[in-house]
Amino acid sequence: MAFSKIIECVPNFSEGRNINVIEKIVENFRAKDGVKLLDYSWDEDHNRCVVTVVGEPTPLKDAVVAAIGTAIKEINMNEHKGQHPRMGAVDVVPFIPIKNSTVEECVSLSKDVAKEIWEKYEMPSFLYENSASSSKRKNLAKIRKGEYEGMFEKMQEEDWHPDFGNNAPHPTAGVCAIGARAPLVAYNINLDTSNVDIANKIAKNIRHLSGGYRFVKAMGVELKDRNISQVSINMTDYTKTSLYRVFETVKFEAKRWGVNVIGSEIVGLVPMMALIESAEYYLGLEEFKPEQILETRIME
Questions:
Q1: In the record, which residues are listed under signal peptide (predicted)?
Q2: More confident of the two residues 254 and 293
Q3: Would you say residue 203 has pLDDT above 80?
C-alpha cells in the first residue's frame, strides 16, 4: 500500500441484515486506485454495518460519497429497526489521520463530503468531533439524540439546523454525522443474562456522561439471537482509558447483579498498542517493548 498520504474512514451504515445491500455498499471501496478496503462487519441485532477503509484524500472522498449514495438508494429508514441508535442510512462518517496527514486535513475532507452529499443526494448532515461548528455538536450522542424518528422535529429547532442542507432529514435516508476524530476502538462485552436493564445499568456506571471513565461511551444492547445482553462501548481514546480497565470494571459491576462476563469482541480494526497494553496487564509483562513482537520486526 504505497500511499504517500493515508487517511482512514470508518463509515457506519444502517444495514446489518440484508447481505446483498451490504455488498452493494462495500463494492464502492473495492478495486479503486488510491483506496484500500481493510475490513467490514455487520450485526443483525444492531442492524448495522461498519466499514474500515484507508486511502489518499481525493480518491477516498470519492469512494465514500459513492458508498453514501448507494446507502441512500438502498436503505429506507422508515422501515429500519435495530438495537443501535441511528439517525440515517449512513449514520456516521469519521475521518482519522494516519500517515502524513493532519486533523485539519480530515476536517476539510469531512466538510467536502458533507457538502457533496447534500448537492448530489439532498442528504443533510451535522459536523461533529473536531469538525464541529459549535461545542454542543462535538458529541455524537447529543447530535443523534431523538434518532431518526425524532429528527424531523429536532431539526426545526434553531440550535439543531444541520451544517449542510435544509432543516429536515432526507425522507427515507435521514441525516448523517460527519467529522474528524482520533482512532476509536469499538469494544463490546457480553453478559450471561438476557436482561438488558442490567447491561444499561453497567453502561451508565462506566460511561463518561454518567460519571464514569473519561474516554468511554457505552449503552446496553439485547442480543436476541443469543439470549444475552451486551455492554456496547466506544473507547474514544484508548491511550488514556485502557481496554483492560474497562473490562475489569464491567466484570466487577456485573457481580453486583449476579451475572458474569462471558466474552468480549472488537468491532472492526483495532490499533495494535491497545491490545499490547492489555496483554502487558494480564500477563504481568515487565519492560515489554513493541519491538519484541515478531511481526513488527518483520515489517520494518
A1: none
A2: 254
A3: yes
Kindly report the CATH number assigned to the domain that includes residue 169: 3.30.990.10
Residues 123 and 207 in one domain: no
Are the C-beta atoms of residues 44 and 22 closer than 8 Å to each other? no
DSSP 133-199: SSGGGS-HHHHHTTHHHHHHHHTTSGGG--SBS-SS-BTTTB-EEEEE----EEEEEEES-S-HHHH
Q: How far apart (Å, rounded) are the C-alpha atoms in residues 159 and 47?
A: 29
Determine which one of 46, 80, 84, 161 is catalytic.
84
What nine digits make up the cell of 289?
517493548
For residues 281 and 242, is the Cβ–Cβ distance under 8 A?
yes
147 residue type, one letter = E
Residues 131, 15: one domain?
yes
Q: Please name the residues in contact with 120: beta carbons below 8 A apart, sequence gap of 6 or more.
A: 65, 69
76-128 pLDDT, tens digit per residue, is 999 999 989 999 999 999 999 988 889 999 999 999 999 999 999 999 999 99
206: three-class secondary structure by DSSP: helix
Is residue 46 part of the annotated active site? The answer reads no
**3-class state of residue 212 by DSSP:** coil
Residue written as grid cell 449542510: 164
Residues sharing a CB contact under 8 Å with residue 73, sequence separation 6 or more, in sequence order: none
**Is the pLDDT higher at 298 or at 169?**
169
Domain that holds residue 196: 185-294
Q: Are both 74 and 173 inside the same structural domain?
A: yes
User: Measured in Å, how far apart are the chain's first and last C-alpha atoms?
Assistant: 14
Q: Which three cell numbers stand for residue 105?
A: 486535513
- Other CB atoms closer than 10 Å to residue 178's CB: what's the count? 29
Element (H, E) at 109: helix 103-121
Is residue 115 in some structural domain?
yes
**Mean pLDDT, residues 255-270:** 92
